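Entry 14. Structure prediction run on the chain below.
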Amino acid sequence: MEFFLSVLGMVLFVEGFPYAAFPKKMKQYIRKMMEVSPSALRGFGLILMLTGLLFVYLAKGGDVQPW
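Output returned:
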């Protein structure tokens, strides 16, 4: 549970940093994202999720135990 909370904290930090550091640019970025099709966003999200899972797998040394 400690590891999960640490990872969640880092994700929230990385996600929140651009909004705190560059609020005007983030508003412009969000407006541009409204122009992107839902299928393109879905595909991009899927690629990011799979990349994240690959990183976790590699960080574990390729030895992932189910439980």
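The CA atoms of residues 4 and 10 lie 10 Å apart.
Filed with the rest of this week's runs.
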